[in-house]
Amino acid sequence: MSGALTLLDRLWAMHEILLREDGTSLLWVDRHLVHEGSHHAFAKLKDRGAQVAQPALTFGIVDHYAPTRNRGTEMAPDIARMIKTLTLNAEAHGIRLFDLFDPAQGIVHVVGPEQGLTLPGLLINCGDSHTSTHGALGALAFGIGATEVAHVLATQTIWQKKPAAMRITVEGDLGPGVSAKDIALHWIAKLGVGGAQGHAVEYAGSTIRGLSIEGRMTLCNLSIEGGARFGMVAPDDTTFAYLNGRPFAPKGADWDMACAAWAELRTDPDARFDRDVNIQAADIAPTVTWGTSPEQAVPVDADIPDPATLHSGKASAALAALDYMGLSAGKPIAGTPVDQVFIGSCTNGRIEDLRAACAVLAGRKTKVPGIVSPGSALIKAQAEQEGLDRIFTDAGLEWVASGCSMCVGMNGDLVAPGKRCASSTNRNFQGRQGRGARTHLMSPAMVAAAAVTGQITDVRPLLQGRAA
Amino acid sequence: MAGWTTCTGTALLLPLDNIDTDQLIPARFMSAPRSQGYGSYLLHDLRRDANGDLLADFPLNQHDGVRILVAGRNFGSGSSREAAVYTLVDAGITAVIAPSFGDIFSSNAVNNGLLPARIGADAAATLYRLLENGPTEISIDLATGRLHCGTTELRFDLQDSWRTKLINGWDDIDLTLQHAEAIRDYAKTRHSTAPWAWPTTAN
Questions:
Q1: Do A129 and B104 touch (CB under 8 A)?
Q2: Which one of A244, A275, A306 terminates a domain?
Q3: Is any Cβ of chain B less than 8 angstroms from the Cβ of A310?
Q4: Are A339 and A265 found together in one domain?
Q5: What percentage of chain A reaches a pLDDT higher than 90?
Q6: Residue B123 needs a FRET pair 20 to 30 A away by CA distance; which of A328, A429, A458, B191 works?
Q7: Residue A272 burial (C-beta neighbours within 10 Å; 0-12, 13-18, 19+)
Q8: In this structure, are A77 and A203 located in the same domain?
């Protein structure tokens, strides 16, 4: 191996306790985030009579089942039980819990960075596939299953085989109305949902450097939709400025020491990747999905593809997707009528996302109903301070509390069978937003455009003459 | 978890790509305790109508005693929900054979004794042909990394560490605790060289 290292090499080496003969590493976990869905893991721990090894490095958050309306009133029994179980487990093991009424409650992948729990150089696990989000700050972050969650709880370590390294370089300026969401949908459409399987993706290039931390989080979040368990961006001054002063971030001398250490977290210029992909920002248009897999996406000004023209292995899935979505091949995707919209989720529920949607909605009325669920209670408060809530409600959308909400529907925020939803979320899977629900993934600005026109619409003309 | 080396059983073709974990188990069933059994949730919304009744034309509903599923690419992609694996295991499935799998699903599968056997495109085409007229018996041998369907022998891919784990039925926590001293030493060094990696507790 040459001396040149990737960011992945550096992060991996920092956390490797030992390397087994079969190539599997035992890694130290700096932060472990749990949520209501972690109940299987806590049950496993209880079965063994084991304790949480490092409660001070473990944080609990109520998000997946969090009601977004009428908080404080009686909840459905299943939902109440899930939240109660997490509360009891957190109490029993001495874990700091961001519960339903915590002023900093929110979606785990929004709260972690917002609270400064997520830092460059940390290894972060959570029983949720979108844990890749935290890599936006230069952390080694990946989603795990319940058995692994139990293992991390019991040992503060995880066994993992080092993935192959992949780099996606994006160069140049993004066009107006084009955001991190579009970069992600663009590369996933180009490489396929298995395009990054077995790989950790590092995002690089001038476009990525120019993204805010929020944008980088959107991009890293969606890595898993392209098959990558890990997404990451090397930390820089944007990262440090974002973290400085966050509640759980280092302070004083520790902060200075941390910044010095974080500045070393980068890929050497001559380091080699197993796969290198180059994208020009100018080639990326506002992008929208037409099918039931994130790779089934096209620029908003394109036609819904004819399955017969697709790669032979993808034709039957495309036919099934068109059937489920109630769409016809060869027609423009723009103009497809939608029944409702959703803005929120760990993908696009941050302040910048809400501002982008409001840039479209200000002074306009929506033709279809929809809900807006900020990624955290703090984002909700900030948005209200900026008057964004009024822009949403004046336009005709419902402004609700924070949680995973209609991205996954566990809290009862569901799309009815056969209904079509323009959504700022991460998965257009069959049944994801509810049985029979039809989901079109797009950026928050594009969702706002769909709300205003009642159909899938190119947001760019709607932004002309406005400060986006 | 009990280990296993060979498995012979009825294999069913489910020639769909992108069977994601949301389809394996819709989110609304995930609050159930495992002790209740997850088998009836397997592919719930594909297998059942809006009333919860089984659809007669879905392949999995036409045959009992299926132990092996042969599926399309990108099986188990999406959400990290281990409940997706529980539905398969609790329904009696021991192996899924497909051209590719979601990374997290594969780890979860192995942690529950379920084999995610990856096969090449040619092998997949062969297997689909052999199974297209109905379920057929397949034998799988973890030790050799080969499977047999009638007189046809095919190779499948599996990480070495996963092969060992499936065969031995190892529990990772027990294995890890044997390294308790190395973990303690690591934590001590990390705490002294990177104190910033511990959360500020002032608030």
A1: yes
A2: A275
A3: no
A4: no
A5: 97
A6: A429
A7: middle
A8: yes
pLDDT digit string, tens, across residues A175-196: 999 999 999 999 999 999 999 9
What are the pLDDT digits (tens) for A329-344?
A: 999 999 999 999 999 9
Which residues constitute the domain of residue A307?
A: 288-463
End-to-end, the C-alpha distance of chain A in Å comes to 47
Query: Which tens digits make up the pLDDT trace of B11-37?
Result: 999 999 999 999 999 999 999 989 999
A136: domain CATH number is: 3.30.499.10
- Whether residue A335 is contained in a domain is answered as yes
State the pLDDT at residue B2.
86
- Residue A266 DSSP label: S
- The two structure tokens encoding residue A11: 């992060």
Which CATH number fits the domain that encloses residue B106?
Answer: 3.20.19.10
Which of chain A's residues have a Cβ under 8 Å away from the Cβ of B110? none
Lookup: tokens for A296: 């089934």
Q: Residue B23's CB: how many other CB atoms inside 10 A? A: 23
Question: Which residue in A154, A197, A430 is closest to B173 by CB distance?
Answer: A154
Same domain, A20 and A154: yes
Strand order in the sheet with B115-118: B115-118, B95-98, B66-71, B6-14, B136-141, B146-149, B152-155
Q: Which of A275, A308, A337 is the last residue of a domain?
A: A275
How many domains is chain B partitioned into structurally?
1
Confirm whether A281 is domain-assigned: no
Q: Which residues in chain B are contacts of A24 at CB distance < 8 A?
A: 161
Which neighbouring-strand residues pair with A232?
A: A202
Within-domain flag for B179: no
Supply the pLDDT for residue B202: 47
Domain membership of residue B26 (yes or no) is yes
Q: Would you call B168 an interface residue with chain A, using a CB distance cutoff of 8 Å?
A: no
**Could you report the per-residue pLDDT of A403-446, keeping only the tens digit for each?**
999 999 999 999 999 999 999 999 999 999 999 999 999 999 99
Q: Nearest Cα to B88, choosing from B109, B103, B104, B64?
A: B109
Average pLDDT of the segment spanning A255-269: 97
Q: DSSP states of A105-169 as a string?
A: -B-HHHHHHHTT-S-TT-EEEESSGGGGGGGGGT-EEEE--HHHHHHHHHHSEEEEEPPEEEEEE
Cα(A381)–Cα(A66) distance, integer angstroms: 17
Chain B contacts in chain A segment 181-220 (CB below 8 A): 193-194, 197-198
Model confidence, pTM: 0.97
Q: Tens of pLDDT along A102-125?
A: 999 999 999 999 999 999 999 999
Q: Does residue A346 register a pLDDT over 60?
A: yes
d(CA A343, CA A427): 13
Structurally, chain A folds into a number of domains equal to 2
**A83, A104 in Cβ contact below 8 A?**
no
Asked if A270 and A239 sit in the same domain, the reply is yes
ipTM, two decimals, is 0.96
Domain of residue B135: give its range.
Answer: 6-170
